[in-house]
Amino acid sequence: MKSHTNVEYRTTKEILEGIIRNASKYSKFQHDTIYGNRMYHVVKPISGTGTYEIKITKKVRGEDRVEPNGISKNKDTTKQEFLEELQKVLAFVFPRVNYHDGNVLVSDNNNDFIISLVKKMK
In whole angstroms, what is the distance from residue 68 CA to residue 6 CA? Predict the structure, then answer.
């Protein structure tokens, strides 16, 4: 006899946000959430200065698809360090994780998600 089970389904964006919230477990960065007119995910280096907003951009795949180009270099070495550590963790969860113009690109069956960092000034 089968028993009833509750299965939770999560979207790709919810999984990405969950991984980002746990940044201190896999990187040298600390996650924080800022509430204003909308919710912002930010990371701060544990030993350093600067605050970076994490932007997750969803590109709905139609005719055009975001193609990975493998460019992981950034002018800001702190930003590059976090994105490299994030990419390593995401590669365990998602089958198609690459770089696109210095940002992390996660591709699922229907969408492309581009994860980028923007330095915030106080």
Answer: 36
